[in-house]
Amino acid sequence: MSIHCVPLCNKLKRRKFIQLSSLASLPLILKSCDWATDGQAFEITVFTDIHTGHLVFESQNWPTSEELSTETLIVGGGIAGLAAAAQLKGRDFRLCELSDRLGGTSCYHEHDQTKFAQGAHYDLAYPANYGEEVLGLLEQLNIIEFETWKDSWSFKDQQHIISGRRESRCFINGQYREEVLPAGELYDQFIKLIEQYSGEMRMPTRLIGADFVELNKISFLEFLNQKLSLTPDFIRGLDYHMLDDWGGTAAQVSALAGVHYFACRPYYKQVVDLFSPPEGNGYFINKLASLHQKELMTGHLVSQISKTDAGFVSTVVDIEGKAVKKISSKNVIYAGQKHALKYIMPDQYEHFAATQYAPWLVLNFVLNDQLGAMGYWQNEMLMEDTTFMGFVDSSMQHTALQKHRVLTAYYCLPPESREDLRNAEANKAVIVEKTVGYLNAYFDQDITDMIQHVYIKVMGHAMPVPVPGYLFNDRNENRRYQGFTFAGVDNGRLPLLFEAMDSGIQAVKALEV
User: Fold this and answer.
1) Does pTM surpass 0.85?
2) Is the pLDDT at 208 greater than 80, yes or no?
3) Could you tell me if 304 and 344 are in contact, meaning their C-beta atoms sit under 8 angstroms apart?
4) Is residue 363 within 8 Å of 372, Cβ to Cβ?
5) In this structure, are residues 459 and 246 in contact, taking their beta carbons and an 8 Å threshold?
6) Which residue among 8, 81, 260, 278 has its CA within the 20 to 30 Å range from the CA of 308?
7) Contact 470, 492 (CB under 8 A)
């Protein structure tokens, strides 16, 4: 597929540039639609909400088809919104989700009876000192059970536990090593430092003791530089870990976020179960959604919320029906991304104007069965293009009913690349080519002829970056309206499943105070 944006001679030069120059990082490719690549023998499908603004404008001319009334309206059908819905089971509520599927950043897709994650793709067993409310909900959903001999909660569907010996491998400078952080004396010193916080870094983070709040005021890199003599190689490994889970480098995220990443579970004392079904955290979405029927309204965009004497009136765009609905409610739980409040309810946006989000791009490569190379579940890759995080290999998951092997590659982009994601559709072929080049380097063979279909998921606001001062900042404590609460990890939370679930539970409890 060619992208007809520049003369052919320039295209050929650009194509050679992509193949030979390390400067052709994904952020550079996304800058314009001037790239070109040869035709592929497989289809590329792009999922993006980039056209939402156009949809809101277009819907201004659509008729109002229905007026509904409910006690509570939940905005957003991700983990946080569905956790809130679980708390409201048996009560009068409606949930509106923009996408045609639930999940948000935990969504998944299916191709030819093969499921794969398009966002968050795993979780880990929970220590006993984690928050009782989320543990209770997970137990109610028949997801976890307590194992007294481990003093922790583990997953009941043990077939989805990833084998420790095939869990991960790091690829750096054309070679493999066991861990992202280089082994040696500095690593040992780092672990000794982190172990001082073992058992203190609780989940949800709102339960962390006041003694550690100071860690939220400085960056992780600043904290470590006060105690260790870091090397560039070690900082590169730290940056990879922080980008992978928090969307920012060690210099960008808070020390509390950095310490929490390494100390929140007893990694250095025992084996911690890693849970990853083929659909990733879409597994949790399905479990939560199973609690409800008609209350969940997908393909419904909440475009405006207005305060009234009786509560709130929300303007909702029915995307498939090409109509507008008005929903009156006593309460609103806003579990959507908070940057959208700028347009939906401007007087609420001021609470979140400073929140920074990391954009992500996810590519699912659906393969035939010709790739014989033995895989690891998570393949961490430290490349010159620091936005590339590596890939997850479905061959290490429980795939009894799966027909294809799927390699799911991830890019974590800097916030300044968000606007450039508008070019993802135009540049989809070259984005795929660039990523295939990384995968070829890892497997030391060309996988192009094995690819049957590629799916690209564009997430402009995939995760909030926990910069210094971000955590311990629950906007529900000083909210403008008693009947309007916030849920979601971008309400002063770490971008983790457990945090998202707790935020939904707490949003409902705040309404009841």
Assistant:
1) yes
2) yes
3) yes
4) no
5) no
6) 81
7) yes
In which band, very low, low, confident or very high, does the pLDDT at 35 lie, cut at 50, 70 and 90?
Answer: confident
Q: What is the rounded distance in angstroms from the CA atom of residue 244 to the CA atom of residue 119?
A: 12
> Backbone dihedral region of 488: left (phi > 0), alpha (psi from -120 to 50 degrees) or beta?
left
- Check: CB of residue 287 under 8 Å from CB of residue 267: no
Nearest C-alpha neighbor of 79 from the set 237, 243, 288: 288
* Phi then psi dihedrals of residue 510, to 5 deg: -65, -35
Residue 275: C-alpha distances to residues 70, 122, 205 (Å): 37, 6, 21
Nearest Cα neighbor of 123 from 153, 86, 166, 91 is: 153
Q: Tell me if 193 sits within 8 A of 180, measured CB to CB.
A: no
- Find the distance separating the first CA and the last CA of the chain, reported in whole Å: 58
Measured CA distances, 86 to 95, 263, 320, 386 (Å): 11, 30, 26, 39
Q: Give the whole-angstrom CA distance, residue 453 versus residue 435.
A: 14
- Stretch(es) of the chain classified as CATH 3.50.50.60: 62-110+280-355+486-512
- Token look-up 């419904």 returns 300
Q: Residue 268: what pLDDT?
A: 67
Residues 49, 28: Cα–Cα separation, whole Å: 22
User: Where does the chain hold its CATH 3.90.660 domain(s)?
Assistant: 8-52+356-464
Dist CA 116 CA 383 (whole Å): 24
CA dist 206 to 133, 159, 253, 437, 498, Å? 13, 32, 17, 42, 12
- Per-residue tokens: 250: 């060690």
- At the topology level, CATH places domain 62-110+280-355+486-512 in FAD/NAD(P)-binding domain (3.50.50)
**Across residues 264-269, what is the average pLDDT?**
76
- CATH T-level fold of 8-52+356-464: Polyamine Oxidase; Chain A, domain 2 (3.90.660)
pLDDT tens, 310-320? 999 999 999 99
pLDDT > 70 in the chain, percent = 95
Alpha carbon of residue 351 to chain centroid:
22
| Per-residue pLDDT at 309 exceeds 80 | yes
Are 430 and 16 in contact, with CB atoms under 8 Å apart? no
What the block records as the tokens of 21 is 């120059």
Listed residue (285, 107, 133, 105) closest to 204, CA to CA: 133
Reported as a single tens digit per residue, the pLDDT across 337-359 is 999 999 999 999 998 999 999 99
Confidence at residue 435, expressed as pLDDT on a 0 to 100 scale: 95
Q: Residue 191 has what pLDDT?
A: 94
Q: What is the pLDDT of residue 285?
A: 97
* Predicted local distance difference test score (pLDDT) of residue 12: 36
Please report the DSSP string for 206-247 in residue order: GGS-GGGGGGGSSBHHHHHHTT----HHHHHHHHHHHHHHHS
